[in-house]
Write a structure and sequence with these properties.
Elements (H helix, E strand, L loop, with lengths): L5 E4 L2 E5 L1 E2 L5 H22 L7 H12 L6 E4 L3 E7 L8 E6 L2 E8 L18 E8 L4 E11 L2 E8 L4 H9 L1
Parallel strand pairs: 3-6
Antiparallel strand pairs: 1-2, 2-9, 4-5, 5-10, 6-7, 7-8, 9-10
Length: about 170
């Protein structure tokens, strides 16, 4: 699938988001978790190394590092759709990964001015990243996925497992 093909359908601007199947996906998730871990430890140190607040520190680190997406899942007979406002992110900034029981959205947008100061700590940059993991309420087919952005809203369309094209036609005929 093309990473940011612009589609014009009846005058509506729609961008297609890349559905990822890259080999380094696991490594990238580990990097994001490590980044969060380091920032959470810095927060722990800043608070006087008081134990018992590790979850709070972790969530504070995530809030500093990542743009949260307040998405929602809509279930249809044969599919699920996950929708979220992504603000100024564009298709070229995003990648969607799907496993049978989860949806992962990765996004990164780095303003040009940051390139002048590569030594700036990550949590102090104006860099915006998305690292969102969504648990799905049922199994989906990870190969039957589309993702588009329209009017600043990311829509990820997932076919339920076992609901292949033949299955949909058979169900409709019944």
């Amino acid at each position: 699938m093309k990473s940011s093909e612009v589609l014009l359908d009846q005058g509506i601007h729609k961008e297609t988001v890349h559905i990822g199947r890259r080999k380094d996906f696991g490594r990238r998730l580990c990097e994001l978790d490590e980044l969060t871990s380091h920032r959470a430890y810095e927060i722990f140190e800043r608070k006087g190394k008081t134990h018992g607040h590790d979850i709070e520190d972790w969530f504070e680190a995530q809030a500093e590092l990542f743009t949260p997406l307040g998405g929602q899942i809509v279930e249809e007979e044969f599919s699920l759709e996950w929708r979220a406002d992504i603000g100024s992110f564009r298709a070229k900034d995003l990648e969607v990964h799907v496993d049978p029981h989860r949806l992962v959205i990765l996004g990164r947008k780095v303003p040009e001015k940051l390139h002048a100061h590569p030594g700036t700590p990550v949590h102090e940059r104006q860099e915006k990243e998305i690292y969102q993991v969504v648990g799905l309420p049922m199994e989906v087919d990870p190969f039957m996925v589309t993702a588009n952005i329209q009017k600043g809203v990311l829509g990820v369309f997932l076919l339920k497992a076992g609901k292949s094209r033949g299955g949909i036609g058979q169900a409709a005929a019944a």
